[in-house]
């Protein structure tokens, strides 16, 4: 499988870009990697890059987008932050990926058993550890937790139902933030030039479910 070129990227629709990722995850789950010469792709992309998708995922070591979607060098922009949420710098990276570099798809990828979301649920205990920057990060999830937690429900990472509802809502919240906070990406989507979609990766099976 060759690296994408400007010509191949220009022919990819947002719908086809999504199919590329779906097909790649199916290969990953079936342990049938596409045949790639990565050193050849290094050579092919030395003058430039033409990725077809931007994937925002968690830093979790089990969720490398290139691996779980079976993609090669130059195929996707991979943005990673604990808890896969957006901020201004991440939005700027997405705008570059789509409006400058020509990517056709933005994926917000959550995953099961997310440690960052567990930290958000257990914020009281985490804050006691005295890590100021980590505390800042996990407090990002507090408004989303308040959206999904039910009256009288235990707020704890041990509450697996709450954790998974939070995971899904966090992906949806990130997508809402992209559309609200980036007029560039919102217009590209409205004009049909990109798609913005959410997905969830199961760390036990390797399967990506599209939300």
Structure notes:
With 211 residues, the protein is α/β, with parallel strands linked by helices. The protein has one domain (6-210): Carbonic anhydrase (Beta-carbonic Anhydrase, Chain A, 3-Layer(aba) Sandwich). 49% of the residues lie in helices and 13% in strands. Helix 9 crosses helix 10.
Short key terms for the protein model shown above:
211 residues; alpha/beta; Beta-carbonic Anhydrase, Chain A; five-stranded mixed β-sheet; 11 helices; 13% strand; Carbonic anhydrase; carbonate dehydratase activity; Carbonic_anhydrase_sf; metal-binding; zinc
Biggest pleated sheet:
5 strands, mixed
Shape: globular
Q: Supply the CATH superfamily name.
A: Carbonic anhydrase
Number of DSSP helices? Answer: 11
CATH topology descriptor: Beta-carbonic Anhydrase, Chain A
**Between the first and last Cα atoms, what is the distance in angstroms?**
28 Å
Compile the SSE list and pairings:
Blueprint: H1 6-11, H2 14-29, H3 38-44, E1 53-57, H4 65-68, E2 76-80, H5 88-100, E3 105-111, H6 115-121, H7 123-127, H8 132-139, H9 142-148, H10 160-181, H11 183-190, E4 195-201, E5 208-210
Parallel strand pairs: 1-2, 1-3, 3-4
Antiparallel strand pairs: 4-5
Keywords: Metal-binding, Zinc
Binding site for Zn(2+): 58, 60, 111, 114
GO molecular function, one term: carbonate dehydratase activity
